[in-house]
Design brief:
The structure holds 2 protein chains of 2 kinds.
Chain A lengths: L3 H11 L4 H54 L24 E5 L9 E12 L4 E10 L17 H4 L12 E5 L2 E10 L2 E2 L5 E2 L2 E3 L19 E11 L1 H4 L4 H10 L9 H14 L4 H4 L2 E9 L6
Antiparallel strand pairs in A: 1-2, 2-3, 3-4, 5-8, 5-9, 6-7, 9-10
Chain B lengths: L9 H66 L4 E6 L6 E6 L23 E4 L31 H4 L31 E4 L3 E3 L8 E10 L5 E2 L11 H4 L17 H11 L1 H4 L13 H12 L12 E2 L2 E2 L6 H11 L9 E2 L4 E2 L39 E2 L5 E2 L10 E2 L6 E2 L2 E2 L6 E3 L2 E3 L3 H8 L1 E4 L2 E4 L24 H8 L28 H5 L1 H16 L7 E6 L5 E6 L6 E15 L6 E13 L16 E7 L1 E6 L5 E2 L3 E2 L5 E5 L13 E3 L9 E3 L17 E6 L9 E14 L5 E11 L9 E6 L11 E6 L38 E2 L27 E2 L53 E4 L2 E2 L12 H4 E2 L9 E2 L3 E2 L5 H8 L17 H15 L14 H4 L12 H5 L1 H4 L1 H7 L2 E2 L2 E14 L11 E15 L5 E8 L3
Parallel strand pairs in B: 7-10, 14-41, 20-21, 43-44
Antiparallel strand pairs in B: 1-2, 3-6, 4-5, 4-6, 6-45, 8-9, 11-42, 12-13, 15-16, 17-18, 19-20, 21-22, 23-24, 23-35, 24-30, 24-32, 25-29, 25-33, 26-27, 26-28, 26-33, 29-31, 33-34, 35-36, 37-38, 39-40, 45-46, 46-47
The chains are: A alpha+beta, B alpha+beta.
């Protein structure tokens, strides 16, 4: 064994580290690397989580913002048709809606400012699709039709807006939105009798508490339409088949008249957790809701 | 300190450490930067969305604030007299405008000028509006000229993107920049919103500001609702002239070409009209297309709130959803952008009456102060409330405390009545809100009538007992008032029930009184209302059989009293007492010789020959017949009376009148006698004696008997003793109906039967009101000549010799009748009772109504000049154009009620003069049923609009003369423009006697002269039916009840940066613009409808 002075000399001469030093250095480096890697992995995981969240947020925002624009300019008249769910016309599972709105749309001819707008979840692709047909002026020559007033109905004139059939006019606006549900917030109204009807949530777009209110009637009883959607991030979607998503949709309740909106979201989250889908996928599913207040027509 | 042994030392060690540290720093920096970048991105997204959402919330809140200020303005004590009803479960308040000016929203921030440079602009947010009771709270920072810190401003062109503000002459259609300069548009100021105080007036920037908004308010109600207005350019005056709805407003008056209008109508009413061509080149030319449009408009029951449900080629009718769609339509169709300032897409009117009686000048009844008195016939209709719940015709439940009158009474319900019972053809009423055919129940509900074999009984709301009174509005709280009750409520009570004084007695003094006892019945207001109602029904139905309504006479043991509606038929104008001396009645046994007398009838159908739309329902067989006691007498001394006989035994004269084959027969007064009329009447003598005086077919009448006078006193005369002289028509079933009678004729008169005879005359052949007065007629030689214009010119008419009345049997001066007075203080002989049609207190007979007001007759405005002097006076021989009209068709506007005879001599319902007592009817009635409209209708124009072209569009083409006797038949454009400008000048005037209208009725009571200011011919001013043309045109399409406004509001969120020194230095972060179309009931302050239109630019 060399004396320290010799070792110093030897090192200086050899310009190297001893094995111990190297081992220590390597160990320290390994620790640092491990720490850094863990840090990066954690950061990456967090980033991926956030990325998923951002992806679902983006998806949700795209759909909900589009709905906001369409519903903000929805045509509210008693003499036009709506395709909306109601107690008389319930919709199970994913909902559909179709209405006229004062927004641009695709048209094969110079269009009027009005469009027919429809939303649905395509049961095959499990994606939210929007139909936006630009309506031409009445009596104009063109491939599309103008807005039709009652007795013509959306269902009769544009069946594709009310069914699940494949149609080229639909465009996907939420490829990862697999659940779409809506409900109504009915106005609180002072009745002729003097009693005050409280605002209430409903699955029917008219207030059955008021005698004679039996139809949509320009949404005159509806203060707002609430929309709840479930979104899965694109990466996780690869882990789940459409049929599995469809099964999950079956486990996610429809809005019921007895519910408060938060209850629906809670049930949906429970259904997602309880599903037999991969946790990596379920953890990437999120539920969003938004309430769209409609401009009041007859306060 | 020593380093650990394993650590590199010196330079090598330091370099390693540096690398490690730098690596870690880089790594950390990257992570942080990535995080920040991601956060910033998300924040930007969130912030953008948040600001937009905040701007939206701010805009909606701002609109609520503006709306709230309008409602507060209505309720302000300075603007309204408030009455609150708390009797029911809901409190109802009524805000009666305290002045004419306060019927309208206050104006602020407008340029000065006459005419108004920006007629549509009501107000804008303005820092200088502190004079308003509810100012905008705007600060001195302008939305257009004070550019924000980040370069944002609302340009003038943006403020006028709706094109409601006039643009400079010659401006391109695509350039919305409004007029500028001293009379131009000033952009609204910003209202700053702080996080603590909401809208706050600030002088300098403040960090508490979170946003701002600016707005301008336009009177959209003063525009033509393009969802209703406009008709095919090929329509005829018969279609558009009556202006049944705003649809028949002439849009070419506001700058559209005829082709533009056709394109509009073709697009809007596509399925209903079925036009030729396609969008942009529609044409509507065929009779069926024009009829389709007419039917669409006149059959509308939705108040034009929804489009018709017709479909054609798989397409439907259309409506403009909002103003932006109209702007797009204009771009595509190409009509001039200037017209946009006259067009709106939203109009709402509360289709409920708000009339309150006003006290006419000189009235002894203060109607205004009695408007809430329970015993008053004329109530403030807003103050009459439901007292117990009931189901209305519209299917809603009337709640205690709410206004009893929720709707005007639709005159289309008249179609449920016919002379032969209930008309069940078509839907003519509402039952539980559903259009229904009339039934016994709906007829009694709507009219109080019950059918009984061959006539109607007025029984009120229930039961079958004939009523002796019509309920006062204030006594009805548990049902909707019926037609007759509304008539009674809408006509000033003191203008009804005029009588001529008590029955006269021959030769008592110079004040005689009429020669028939009709005072009691004349005084009965309900009698007159029933008669008027029957007259209205017969104007509206298509047949010419009079409607017969029975009513109980409370002054005669509730005796059943029939009333017959006035139809286009002959009536008794005069009864000539024809006497012959030395007459031998060969049929008597033994034959007698003496003075014999007959009643001969002069008949007159004073209407224009028109309106026979149902030619199969015209009575053509008539009888002149009598009943009751009559006699002959010698005045003496000694007085000798013959035995009284019953005129019912004197037979009758049966005659034929077919207005289709003999259109001029009896159109002027014509004696019904065998020698002067063709076809001659068939004389059927009774047992009393011969009805043909000579048996030669020359003179015929009802035989009144014969008296043998003493040789010392050969004069004598007829002495009616309360007999009735009647006209009857034959019903299709062969029954004879007495549709007119000269009632209770009394008071004989004696003259030398060889020289002078006398006659009893009606002031107006259509009514027995005022009874009969006496005149004399002289027949020439030989005495067999019948009385007529050549040999016996005296009559009621001023175009002949005076209808001398002597001192006998005329309406009493003590009853308020005015006569020319001769120099000796007695009544001047030379007057014409028929000039009561003028009722001018000058040189002719005139009278005041029971309330002391002298009201106009039909000839009130007749000129005294030669030539035109006849215009307006219906009694002048051959003066056809001034004669009344029987429409014989459903009413097309409420103003057409002015065609209905009021049962005062020569006075129809008066919609032409300021002293009318009938103006309330304009507000209580409407034309068409409204189904499920909740009391709202579209297609009404603010009568106080400042847009003269809008009124011009309504007035142009308005029918002046249904029959076309006078020319032109319709109001020319130039006249319409003059009237429209005069109306705007009136409603915008600051003069105390002028200003905005509080009610449709004020068109008459205050500004009737304005309505004829543009008449291009004197006859338009002098003839009643022409004088009312403008009123008719406006009567159903105008309103003052609602404030229908477009609030153009821009809201911006943001803040003032630190260091900002001026209010302009606002940092804009989000923006939202809305056009709020809102309608507020001026009388309740309630928002009755609103449409929020987001504006995307």
């Amino acid at each position: 064994m060399c004396p320290p002075a010799d070792r110093r000399k030897s090192r200086e001469r050899g310009a190297g580290f001893s094995l111990v030093e190297l081992l220590v250095a390597v160990s320290v480096f390994a620790l640092l690397l491990a720490f850094t890697s863990q840090l990066l992995l954690t950061a990456s995981s967090l980033a991926k989580y956030d990325s998923k969240r951002i992806d679902t947020d983006t998806q949700a925002r795209a759909v909900l913002d589009r709905l906001a624009i369409d519903l903000a300019q929805i045509v509210k008249r008693s003499d036009v048709s709506y395709y909306l769910k109601s107690s008389a016309f319930p919709q199970t599972g994913n909902d559909q809606m179709a209405f006229y709105s004062n927004v641009p749309g695709y048209s094969g001819a110079p269009a009027s400012p009005l469009s027919l707008v429809a939303y649905r979840v395509n049961p095959t692709t499990m994606m939210v699709e929007r139909l936006g047909i630009g309506l031409i002026w009445n009596g104009d020559t063109g491939s599309n039709a103008p807005i039709a007033f009652l007795p013509q109905t959306i269902q009769g004139l544009w069946p594709q807006a009310t069914n699940s059939n494949s149609d080229p006019d639909y465009e996907v606006i939420g490829q990862d939105v697999f659940r779409f549900e809506y409900y109504y917030l009915l106005k609180g109204q002072l009745l002729d009798s003097g009693s005050q009807e409280a605002p209430t949530y409903s699955v029917t777009p008219w207030d059955t508490r008021i005698a004679g209110h039996t139809s949509v009637n320009g949404l005159c009883d509806v203060a707002a339409i609430g929309v709840v959607i479930a979104v899965i991030d694109p990466a996780s979607r690869n882990l789940v088949s459409n049929s599995a998503l469809s099964n999950l949709v079956g486990q996610m309740n429809d809005f019921a008249a007895t519910m408060q909106p938060g209850q629906l979201q809670t049930q949906w989250n429970s259904a997602i957790v309880a599903s037999n889908l991969p946790p990596a996928a379920t953890s990437a599913m999120r539920v969003y809701s938004r309430l769209y207040y409609l401009s009041s027509a007859s306060p | 300190m020593n380093s650990p042994s394993w650590f590199p030392e010196n330079g090598r060690r330091e370099g390693f450490a540096l690398i490690v540290v730098l690596s870690l720093i880089v790594l950390l920096t990257l992570v942080v930067m990535m995080f920040l970048a991601q956060s910033m991105s998300a924040r930007q997204l969130s912030r953008g969305s948040l600001q937009q959402s905040k701007a939206d919330q701010l805009a909606v809140s701002a609109l609520d604030i503006v709306t709230g200020s309008l409602k507060q303005e209505i309720a302000a004590a300075t603007n309204s007299t408030t009455v609150t009803f708390n009797t029911g479960p809901v409190s109802y308040s009524v805000y009666r405008p305290s002045s004419n000016a306060s019927i309208l929203p206050a104006r602020s921030g407008n340029p000065a000028g006459v005419p108004d440079p920006i007629p549509n602009l009501v107000r804008r947010s303005w820092s200088g509006d502190s004079n308003l009771p509810f100012p905008s709270n705007a600060s001195a920072v302008n939305s257009a000229t004070d550019v924000s810190y980040n370069g944002r401003s609302i340009t003038f062109a943006r403020w006028n993107s709706h094109y409601l503000i006039p643009r400079p002459n010659g401006a391109a259609d695509t350039d919305a920049t409004p007029i500028s300069g001293s009379g131009g548009f000033t952009a609204p100021d910003w209202v700053l919103v702080t996080d603590t105080g909401g809208p706050t007036v600030l002088a300098s920037p403040n960090s508490s500001v979170i946003g701002r908004y600016a707005y301008a308010i336009y009177n959209e109600g003063g525009l033509l609702d393009v969802n209703v207005a406009g008709y095919p350019s090929n329509s005829t005056v018969a279609e558009y002239g009556d202006k049944p709805q705003l649809a028949y407003a002439d849009l070419t008056q506001i700058g559209l070409a005829a082709s533009d209008v056709d394109n509009l109508v073709g697009w809007r009413n596509y399925a209903s009209v079925q036009p030729s061509g396609s969008f942009g080149s529609f044409s509507i030319t065929t009779a069926s297309q024009l009829q389709n449009f007419y039917n669409l408009i006149t059959n509308n029951v939705t108040g034009f709130l929804s489009v018709n449900t017709a479909t054609w080629n798989g397409l439907t009718d259309q409506a403009f959803i909002n103003r932006q769609q109209l702007l797009q339509f204009r771009l595509r169709e190409g009509f001039p952008a200037t017209a946009l300032q006259y067009l709106g897409t939203f109009s709402r009117d509360v289709a409920a009456p708000s009339w309150t009686p006003a006290t006419p000048a000189g009235s002894t009844i203060d109607y205004a102060s009695q408007k809430d008195a329970g015993a008053s016939a004329n109530r403030d209709v807003l103050d009459v409330r439901v007292t117990s719940t009931f189901m209305r015709a519209d299917g809603t439940t009337a709640q205690i405390g709410e206004p009893l009158l929720k709707h005007r009474f639709p005159l289309n319900r008249l179609a449920g009545l016919s002379y032969s019972g209930i008309n069940t053809t078509g839907t003519t009423t509402l039952l539980n809100g559903v259009p229904s055919v009339a039934s016994a129940a709906t007829i009694q509900r709507d009219f109080g009538l019950v059918w009984s074999t061959d006539h109607w009984n007025y029984c009120g709301p229930s039961g079958t007992t004939i009523s002796s009174s019509i309920a006062l509005l204030g006594s009805i709280g548990n049902r909707e008032p019926n037609f007759f009750e509304l008539l009674k409520a809408g006509i000033l009570s003191g203008s009804l029930g005029r009588d001529a004084g008590s029955n006269g007695t021959y030769y008592v003094d110079w004040e005689e009184g009429p020669a028939s006892g009709v005072q009691t019945s004349d005084q009965n207001i309900d009698f007159q209302v029933i008669q008027l109602g029957a007259n209205i029904i017969d104007q509206s139905d298509t047949d010419s059989y009079p409607t017969e309504i029975h009513f109980a006479d409370p002054n005669n043991s509730n005796a059943e009293t029939p009333f017959y509606g006035i139809e286009n038929l002959p009536y008794i104008q005069r009864i000539f007492a024809r006497m012959l001396g030395n007459y031998t009645n060969a049929s008597a046994s033994p034959p007698q010789t003496g003075i014999a007398g007959w009643y001969m009838a002069e008949l007159w159908n004073p209407h224009q020959n028109s309106g026979y739309t149902d030619t199969s329902s015209i009575p053509t067989q008539f009888r002149f017949i009598g009943s009751g006691p009559t006699a002959m007498f010698v005045p003496g001394p000694p007085v000798v009376n013959s035995t009284s006989i019953d005129l019912a035994n004197s037979g009758y004269l049966q005659f034929t009148v077919n207005p289709i084959t003999s259109p001029t027969l009896y159109r002027d007064p014509t004696l019904l006698t065998t020698g002067s009329v063709a076809p001659a009447p068939t004389v059927v003598s009774g047992t009393n004696g011969p009805d043909d005086a000579y048996g030669n077919g020359v003179l015929s009448g009802l035989y009144s008997g014969l008296i043998v006078p003493p040789s010392s006193n050969p004069s004598g005369g007829i002495q009616p003793q309360g007999c009735d002289l009647m006209l009857q028509y034959q019903t299709p079933s062969g029954t004879w109906k007495t549709y007119q009678l000269m009632k209770n004729l009394t008071g004989g008169h004696d003259w030398n039967p060889a020289v002078v005879n006398f006659y009893y005359q009606h002031a107006d052949p259509r009514t027995d009101r005022f009874g009969t007065s006496l005149g004399q007629w002289t027949f020439g030689s030989p005495p067999t000549n019948p009385p007529g214009s050549s040999s016996s010119p005296q009559s009621i008419r001023p175009d002949t010799s005076p209808g001398w009345n002597g001192y006998d049997f005329f309406p009493r001066p003590s009853a308020g009748f005015i006569y020319p007075i001769s120099s000796d203080g007695s009544i001047f002989d030379n007057f014409y009772i028929g000039t009561e049609s003028d009722n001018v207190s000058t040189s002719n007979p005139a009278y005041t109504d029971p309330d002391g007001v002298m009201r106009s007759g039909e000839g009130y405005y007749a000129s005294s000049n030669a030539g035109d002097g006849t215009d307006g006076r219906p009694m002048i021989l051959g003066n056809t154009g001034s004669r009344p009209i029987i429409l014989n068709r459903p009413f097309r506007n409420v103003g057409e009620l002015g065609y209905a005879f009021r049962d005062d001599p020569w006075r129809n319902i008066d919609f032409m003069s300021p002293n009318t007592g009938d103006a309330g009817l304009l507000d209580l009635f409407c034309i068409q049923e409204e189904e499920n409209t909740n009391g709202l209708v579209a297609g009404s124009v603010d009568l106080n609009t400042r847009q003269a072209p809008v009124l011009q569009a309504i007035l142009a083409g308005a029918m002046k003369d249904e029959t076309g006797v006078e020319s032109p038949p319709a109001v020319p454009s130039a006249d319409a423009a003059t009237i429209a400008n005069a109306l705007v000048s009136w409603t915008t005037s600051a003069n105390a006697s002028e200003g905005p209208f509080l009610n449709r009725s004020e068109l008459l009571t205050k500004a009737s002269g304005v309505l004829v200011s543009g008449s291009s011919s004197s006859s338009d001013q002098q003839i009643k039916i022409r004088r009312e043309a403008a009123l008719r045109a406006l009567s159903d399409v105008s309103t003052v009840r609602t404030w229908t406004l477009l609030i153009d509001l821009v809201a911006q969120t943001g803040h003032y940066p630190p260091g900002a020194t001026t209010l302009a230095q606002f940092v804009v972060e989000g923006e939202r613009r809305y056009w709020l179309h809102i309608s507020i009931d001026r009388f309740t302050g309630q928002v009755v409808d609103r449409v929020l239109e987001p504006v995307y630019e």
